[in-house]
Each structure stands twice: as structure tokens, then as C-alpha cells.
Design a protein that fits this description.
heterodimer; A: 325 residues; mainly alpha; 74% helix; B: 530 residues; 16 helices
């Protein structure tokens, strides 16, 4: 177990290193950050001075060496735009994004799983066909469009929910969360639904496929022959067996929910780290982009690790020492 | 019985009065703003969202009204003692948010801090450097410069004054509200949630009087334009700035909304290669290398005449712009009344082009940013079609702004501009023309600090001489005329091709009256309860 985790960490370090090099030099290929930062009214001398103070006048490899030296000491640099520590900036916006992703994940499970199971167990019914048709829409409609439609329908048209922003927050153990206030839930409902839509469709499809397959298995027939109740057959025998692919996919998808909620955060003016990334990319705020990528890599590695651990809990045949690669 | 009636009527009157009083003290104002401030430190970053928010809390010595004319701020009056000395009389009885009095020492401290904020991505040093400040008495300061500096009052309108107590406060501390008592402005900083909102409360003791101030103002950052409109329609916010052009007509038709606009200080224009004998993105019709045709003023004129400005304004900008004939609308200081937008004249343009030796035109590739200016991509595509009618085969390439501006400024070997013909925009933050003339059309010269944004490397000795003459003329009237003449030289020589001035547009729910501004500032003090 310990060796397994260690190996995972080594892999993570390698990925982080590779990403660093790619992102650092990649940003530089796009353009020189100095032109996105300075006020256009500045003259040449003032632009040069600003570049000097931010270290942007040095050759790129020298900037990279300086960055590496600081990174080893735990300093990922300051945002060019905000002047604050890049990692601190990202972490300060992370709770909002995590909150959004968690609610979206929750929605994906509580809405997607029952619908998918139903569609899998009664594949011929009209309701099942409707569910599958809707799930196709969930896959194919672009997020930004759905987001705007949700706002138009529920905020502008019906006036039930606010259109934008995060609700009232309360501080729990130093972390600001809006999930403990009514106002907070009203605000999170629409963006989370928007973010969840694709995942709901995904879970529906996975659950349906799994359920259809499992329903024909010998152990299900045997359980039925033994006279077990329908709810026990579905709830224990089928559900538990179809959970492995769903957990894997949701685990990975949770990472992407957190890392790439950019569109939803922008449409709903949600103050999360996705919007910070978008802003950083448009302004070539390299320290923030680099730090963001590192955070995301760490996040994915952690989630993969957790998924592996959940596997072994769900399926006793999986042994972590062997399943490490 | 009569007593009872009197009592009842008095009670009714009191109730009515209290209602009136309640209405007079405005309550809460929620504004959806389009861009995120990078910090709450008023001197950290010379950036529109930062400046406009800072303006509520930290006032400059000299203010700018809605048309960007200079008005008294913390300085009551100012005058040029001689060509190189300015004297500012400071307002008496002004108090900072913490109750301490405002004096000349605070101005001195501000002068020390403003140009020297560490790691500033765009500092105010340009407006402070080269000015030697001295205190005459508690409410008088003098500023000496080495050369005549007519723009001192304008420079001082760009940054706010902080309390001397805050001179060592860091940017992070400002963000955390540690020096929240360090301003004199009509509003106090209450909360700053990076990326989400800025909350301010009224300063009841403001020298300008607390009447008409909002008890609480919340600026919500809503960067996506359709979302901003939706937030207004859904009632999340009371007003929004930067209304997208495609929604203006619809919002204007809504009885529950007020839409107001004002011509801005932002001109959208084409800049072109004046400095290379062979321009990289211009070829002959057969693809062969040709001499740079843009060096011929007749070609430049023809291109300008081929642009249908009213068409761009009406069809692409949906009337949220006005055609431009110079770098600033002629209501601004230092512009010329003689310059009108060049009229659309395709036949005339064809004739000029033939005279210049290009009867069949040539091939050209234009470049522009996508998403930096309102409808930028659509404008450049429309212009390409207009040039095509002139016989110039035009290709368009739009690039992400981060990529575009680097290459447009220094993308070619030798750190010179890369492109042949570009679409760009320029906002005259100071509200007069000197910056525009100096930066866009004066000969590129790092030593003198001229032509910093001259991405076409236009160079004209007569123009440079006029601009330099204006920059040392302290007399306002004379300077106005000199800059006007410089503008005429630059425009008649087609140093660049202006197309239109954008309008700044705000939309508010009924009951909120917004005074539109020519800079892009959204100020709570410009909003009144109706």
C-alpha cells in the first residue's frame, strides 16, 4: 500500500515537472505579458521599467531558472496582474469552485442513477425512451447555451432563482461556504445544474448499460429464484455491480468539473477559480496559469488515488499493490 | 372631535413626511460591472476598473466631470505661477474616513507612494515623475517641473490621494481593507471579494455633502455580457455598464428600463505600415513582391474613402458608435472642428488609387484582435469587403489579443511591428488629445518617449514639431489650437484611418437615473434615485 502511494507520488512529480516546462514556455510563445499589463499611455521607457520590475526583461530560460529556484523553496511566484501569491489567489477561489462541483456531482448521482437504472431495467417503456432522448440532448447541447437558457427561463422569465453570483457565505473552519445558507443554495442551483447536465446524461447511460447487462446475469436470476425482493435485487445485487465503472468515470469527471468549470463560472458570474484561469490566460498572467496547472495535476492525482481506494472497497478482488499501473 | 381630526391629519402628514424622507435617503445600489479590478490599492495598477472603483474612496486633487473636463477635486483651485510652476490650493475642512484632517502632507505622501508601488503591472509613475512637489502651507502646494508642463492638472486627475498614515500600506493590506480609512471620498470600502464583488458604504461626513449618496453600493463583477443583461432583467442588479450592442435596441424598448449612452474617448482605427519599403503582408495581384503602396498618401486616402463609416456604425455597431474623422470627438480639448469623417466615395477612391499607379489594386492581409474592442472581428471583415470593392484583394486574420498586441508592437525581427495593416483602438484616458497625438502618430523615439504606440511608425517632421510645441504651451487656449492643427496635419496626411468612436452605454431599472460618462467609469455618484 505504502509503496503504491509512493509510486503514485513519483508519477505525480514527473507529470508536474513536464507540465511546468510546457506551460511556462507555451505562454511565452503566445505573447509577451508586458503588452497585456501596461496601460497603453505608457511610453517606451516606462514599459521597459515595468518589464524590469516584473523580471520580464530577462531571457525566457533565465526567467525559468529563477522560477525553478523559487518553486523549490515553495514559492510559485506572484500574479503579474494581482500582485498576490498565485497559489494563494487560486486557493482563495477554490472553495467556490469545489462547492459548485460537489453540488453538480451530487445532482449527477441522485438524478442520473435512478433514471439510468429505470431505463436499464425497463428498456422498452415509453418513459425509458424519453429519458434516453433527453440524455442525448444533455450530451449535445453546448454548456454556454444551456446556461443562458436556464437563466432566461428560471431567473428572467419565472423569477424563481437569481441569475448570477454566489450567495451569502458562512465561515466553517476558515473556509467560506455558501452551502449552509438558503440564499447560497438558491444561487448555486442553476450553475450546478448547468454543470451537472452533461454528467447526469453520462451517469444515465452508464447506469442503463450496466443495469441491462447485469439484469441478465446468472446471479440475478439466482437471486430472483431464491425469492429475494425486487428492491433487494436492484439495490444490492445489481447496483453494487454496476458501480465500478460509474465510480471511475465520476471520479475522473469530478476532476474535470473542478478544473474546467470555466464556461459555467463565466456565464453565471460564479467567483471560482475557473474564471480566474480564464482571466489569467487572456492577460497572460503566467504565474497564475502555471500554479493553476500544478493545482489541477495534484487534484487529478489525488482523485485517481481515491478512486483506486474506493475500488478496493467496492470489489474485494482488486488489490492495490497489483493494480498500481 | 376636531382635535381628533387634527391629530389624525398630523399623523398622516408625519407618516407622509417620513415616507418622503425615506425616499430622499437612497438605500442600496447594485451595479453589474464588466471587468474585474486587480486590487483595491489606488496606486497599484493604472487600469479602468481599478481607477473607477478607487475614485469612490480616494479622490484626486483634480476631478474629471462626465465629459472629462477638469473640475476641482481635493484642490479647490490651481494656477500656473510661471511656465514651470503650478500652485494648488487645497480644500479646507476635508476629513479622511478615520476623521483625521486632510492637509498638504497627505499629498506629499501620495506623491511618494504612487510611483513606487512594488510589482505594479502599470504604475502611475508617468504622472508623478519629473514633478518636484513642495508644501507652501497646510493647504497650498507647489509643483515645479524642469520644462514647461501644461498637463500637470490633467496628470493629477489620474490618481487618488491617500492619508499620510497609509503611505507604507502594502497592496495586499489595501485589499484586506487595512487602510480603508485612508481616503476622503464619498464612499468607504466595506468589503472586497476578489473576482466577485466590491461593497462600499456612504461616507456621511463627505465634504461634498451626504445628500444623494447611497447607503450601500455593491459592485458585482459579471464579465459575460449576456449574463450582465440577464442579471439586470432578473433584478439581481439595478444597473449594468457596457451593454452589448446587440441588446441595446431590445433594452431600449423595455418600459421598465432606462438606457443612456455617451460618446466615448475610444476611437477605433486602422494603422498601417509607413516604414518598410516592402511590407510583409502586401503583394502584387500575381503574388509578387511590390513596393509598399501605403507609403503613398493617395493610396492611404483611397483606403479611407473606401470605408463606409455610416454603414459600419449602423449595421455592425447597431448605432452604438459615431463615425470618426480624428482621434477624439471634436467636443474634446485639442481637436479640430475642421475635421469631419471622410465621406464614403468609392469612385473617387478608385481614381486616386489609379493615379497612384495601382489601377488594378494589390493584395493585402489585415490583422486585428478578436474580442478586444466591441465587434472588432465583424468590423475588420466588413472593411475587407469594402477594400475588395476598391480592387484590393484583402484577407483577414484575427488573433487573440495577447498574441496580437505582442506581434503588432514588436513581432518582426529587430523588435519592430510585424503587420502591414491592423485594426486597433485607443482610449484617451486624460480626456484631451495630447496623449493620443504623442503615442499614436509622433515619430517613434524611445529617448523622447514619443510614438510608443505608433505601430505603423508614421513619421512626419511638421507633425512632430506641432505636437512638441503644444506640449510646452501652458496657455490653454493656444495649446488647444496647436493640438488641433497637429491633428489636422496627421489626419490630412492619413497617418492612420479612424473609423468610429464607440458609445459607452449603461442600462438601469426604472427609478435609477444614470448620468453617462465619456470615460468608461461607472460611478455610484453618477446614479440618482428617481
Amino acid at each position: 500500500m505504502a509503496a503504491f502511494i509512493l509510486r503514485r507520488l513519483a508519477q505525480a512529480l514527473f507529470v508536474i515537472g513536464a507540465m511546468l516546462v510546457i506551460v511556462f514556455f507555451g505562454v511565452n510563445v503566445v505573447g509577451d505579458p508586458i503588452y497585456m499589463l501596461v496601460s497603453p499611455e505608457m511610453n517606451q521607457e516606462q514599459i521597459a521599467e515595468t518589464a524590469r520590475s516584473l523580471g520580464l526583461d530577462r531571457p525566457i530560460w533565465e526567467q525559468f531558472l529563477i522560477f525553478l529556484r523559487n518553486a523549490v523553496q515553495g514559492d510559485l511566484g506572484r500574479s503579474f496582474v494581482h500582485g498576490e501569491s498565485a497559489i494563494k489567489l487560486i486557493l482563495s477561489r477554490m472553495p467556490a469552485t469545489l462547492e459548485l462541483a460537489l453540488v453538480a456531482l451530487f445532482m449527477a448521482i441522485v438524478i442520473g442513477l435512478p433514471l439510468g437504472l429505470y431505463a436499464g431495467l425497463k428498456p422498452e417503456s415509453k418513459a425509458s425512451r424519453a429519458i434516453m432522448a433527453i440524455s442525448i440532448l444533455g450530451f449535445s447541447l453546448p454548456t454556454f447555451w444551456v446556461g443562458l437558457m436556464l437563466i432566461l427561463a428560471f431567473a428572467v422569465g419565472l423569477g424563481w432563482l437569481p441569475a448570477t453570483g454566489r450567495g451569502e457565505t458562512v465561515s466553517v473552519l476558515g473556509i467560506e461556504t455558501s452551502l449552509l445558507t438558503v440564499d447560497g443554495w438558491q444561487h448555486v442551483a442553476l450553475p450546478a445544474l448547468n454543470l451537472a447536465l452533461l454528467k447526469i446524461s453520462l451517469v444515465i447511460r452508464l447506469a442503463r448499460a450496466g443495469a441491462r447487462e447485469a439484469a441478465l446475469m446468472d446471479y440475478v436470476k439466482f437471486a430472483r429464484a431464491k425469492g429475494l425482493s425486487q428492491s433487494r435485487i436492484i439495490g444490492v445485487h445489481i447496483l453494487k455491480n454496476i458501480m465500478i465503472p460509474i465510480v471511475t468515470v465520476l471520479g475522473l469527471e469530478f476532476g474535470s468539473l473542478v478544473a474546467f468549470s470555466v464556461v459555467t463560472e463565466t456565464i453565471f458570474a460564479w467567483p471560482g477559480m475557473g474564471r480566474l484561469l480564464l482571466e489569467a490566460i487572456t492577460r497572460l498572467d503566467r504565474p497564475v496559469i502555471v500554479a493553476y496547472v500544478m493545482v489541477v495535476v495534484v487534484l487529478f492525482v489525488t482523485i485517481n488515488l481515491l478512486v483506486d481506494l474506493v475500488y478496493s472497497a467496492l470489489d474485494p478482488r482488486v488489490r492495490l499493490t497489483e493494480a498500481s499501473t | 372631535m376636531r382635535n381628533v381630526a387634527t391629530f389624525a391629519s398630523r399623523a398622516a402628514m408625519a407618516a407622509a413626511l417620513s415616507l418622503v424622507a425615506g425616499a430622499a435617503v437612497a438605500q442600496e445600489l447594485r451595479i453589474g460591472i464588466s471587468a474585474e479590478p486587480s486590487a483595491m490599492d489606488p496606486h497599484y495598477h493604472n487600469l479602468t476598473p481599478n481607477n473607477m472603483l478607487a475614485r469612490h474612496i480616494y479622490e484626486p486633487l483634480v476631478g474629471q466631470d462626465a465629459s472629462q473636463r477638469l473640475v476641482p477635486g481635493l484642490a479647490e483651485s490651481w494656477k500656473a505661477v510661471d511656465d514651470t510652476t503650478w500652485e494648488f490650493k487645497l480644500r479646507q475642512n476635508v476629513k479622511f474616513h478615520d476623521g483625521s484632517p486632510f492637509t498638504a502632507d497627505d499629498v506629499l505622501a501620495t506623491f511618494q507612494r504612487a510611483p513606487n508601488v512594488p510589482k505594479s503591472p502599470s504604475s502611475f509613475s508617468a504622472y508623478v515623475r519629473g514633478k518636484e512637489i513642495s508644501k507652501v502651507d497646510d493647504h497650498t502646494i507647489r509643483i515645479k517641473t524642469a520644462a514647461p508642463a501644461p498637463l500637470v492638472p490633467t496628470d493629477l486627475s489620474t490618481f487618488g490621494v491617500i492619508s499620510a498614515k497609509c503611505k507604507d500600506t502594502t497592496t495586499e493590506e489595501f485589499n484586506a481593507g487595512k487602510c480603508a480609512a485612508g481616503g476622503t471620498g464619498p464612499y468607504k470600502q466595506a468589503e472586497f471579494v476578489s473576482g466577485d464583488r466590491v461593497v462600499m458604504t456612504a461616507n456621511e461626513n463627505w465634504w461634498g455633502g451626504s445628500k444623494g449618496l447611497w447607503k450601500k453600493v455593491t459592485f458585482r463583477i459579471v464579465t459575460s455580457a449576456p449574463t450582465r443583461v440577464a442579471a439586470l432583467l432578473a433584478g439581481d442588479v439595478d444597473m449594468i455598464e457596457a451593454v452589448p450592442t446587440s441588446d441595446v435596441a431590445k433594452l431600449k424598448g423595455d418600459k421598465n428600463l432606462n438606457v443612456v449612452s455617451q460618446v466615448s474617448n475610444r476611437v477605433v482605427y486602422f494603422h498601417m505600415d509607413h516604414f518598410r519599403d516592402v511590407s510583409p503582408f502586401i503583394k502584387g495581384k500575381d503574388g509578387s513582391e511590390i513596393k509598399n503602396p501605403l507609403k503613398d498618401v493617395r493610396v492611404r486616402k483611397a483606403l479611407s474613402m473606401a470605408i463606409n463609416r455610416p454603414g459600419i456604425v449602423e449595421r455592425i455597431m447597431e448605432k452604438e458608435a459615431i463615425p470618426a474623422g480624428q482621434l477624439l470627438p471634436d467636443s474634446f480639448f485639442g481637436t479640430s472642428k475642421n475635421l469631419k469623417p471622410v465621406a464614403f466615395d468609392l469612385n473617387g477612391a478608385k481614381k486616386l488609387l489609379a493615379e497612384a499607379g495601382y489601377p488594378n489594386g494589390f493584395k493585402m492581409k489585415m490583422h486585428g484582435p478578436n474580442g478586444r474592442y466591441t465587434n472588432d472581428t465583424k468590423i475588420i471583415e466588413a472593411a475587407a469587403q469594402m477594400f475588395a470593392r476598391l480592387g484590393i484583394e484583402t484577407e483577414v486574420e484575427t488573433l487573440p489579443p495577447a498574441n496580437f498586441f505582442t506581434r503588432a508592437s514588436q513581432g518582426a525581427p529587430g523588435n519592430v511591428p510585424e503587420f502591414s495593416f491592423i485594426l486597433v483602438g485607443w482610449a484617451a484616458g486624460t480626456g484631451e488629445s495630447s496623449d493620443s497625438l504623442k503615442a499614436l502618430l509622433a515619430t517613434f523615439n524611445p529617448q523622447k518617449g514619443m510614438g510608443a504606440t505608433n505601430r505603423g511608425r508614421y513619421s512626419n517632421a511638421a507633425f512632430d514639431a506641432k505636437v512638441e510645441e503644444g506640449l510646452r504651451t501652458v496657455d490653454d487656449k493656444k495649446r488647444d489650437a496647436i493640438f488641433g492643427e497637429a491633428m489636422e496635419i496627421g489626419m490630412n496626411d492619413v497617418g492612420l484611418i479612424p473609423t468610429h468612436f464607440q458609445l459607452n452605454t449603461w442600462a438601469a431599472r426604472k427609478g435609477f437615473k444614470v448620468e453617462p460618462r465619456s470615460d468608461e467609469y461607472t460611478l455610484a455618484t453618477s446614479v440618482a434615485k428617481q
